[in-house]
Amino acid sequence: MNERTAPDPGLLSINTATLRGRWNLREILDGCARHGIKGVSPWRDQVRAMGLKEAAAKVREHGFAVTGYCRGGMFPGATEAERLAARDDNRRAVDEALELGSQCLVLVVGGLPKGSKDIAGARAQVRDGIGELLDYARPAGMPLAIEPLHPMYAADRACVNTTAHANDLCDELGDDGLGIALDVYHIWWDPDILPQIARAGAKRILAFHICDWLVPTRDVLLDRGMMGDGVIDIPALRDAVEAQGYRGFHEVEIFSAEDWWKRPPDEVIATCVERHRSCC
Ligand code: ZN
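Above: inputs. Below: predicted complex with zinc ion.
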């Protein structure tokens, strides 16, 4: 068996969705600090509920790295008004990410507009939407991280479903200020994933998200597993991104309405720390 080094515990980041079941953002940030966690990745609704200024101050107080801000995107619209609303909202997301000192703004790019069956058209809108947002984000210095989502979300969340497609968008729109968020939950099944990680290289890999794929999965959105409880070869994927020179955080992102969100959050964090060491 290949001997792997356990990951540096200092590279563990917690996506705040993981702890949202029982804690608000203030409790999550204080809880992560108590457990010695060095990185966090907050969601916009949580930041809005706490207040952007207060959240940014709390992040600075604890000295967290903000390994991503979740999320921008949702570019396609059925009407021009919808597209413009998405554009404006994405610009606000960039501003908020800057205020929080985030390393990137994660893009969940959106699926089909309401009533549409035109996935090629949706993908064209995504390309144009990212291009337009780059004009705003690049001069501001906020990198955009395209997160390819598992194809089961193509209709309603993201019509960029492979790392190859995300790489194509980076090729077309330019690497400057644009990259990819690789989430093991979305990429583990892809037979082309290792060549596509190599194609992305350290320059494009802006974030690495971890959790596990449970068998059976009882809910396509809210039944993600803790690392080690499912079928994803997480160490192999970590090896692949780190072989490219990626030295960023490993961000735990678990949506789990019936399991982890119901557990005491201190137990969840302690489990993340242990599984990061033993299963990643
Ligand atoms: Zn993710």
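Residues 9-279 form a domain with the TIM Barrel fold (CATH 3.20.20.150).
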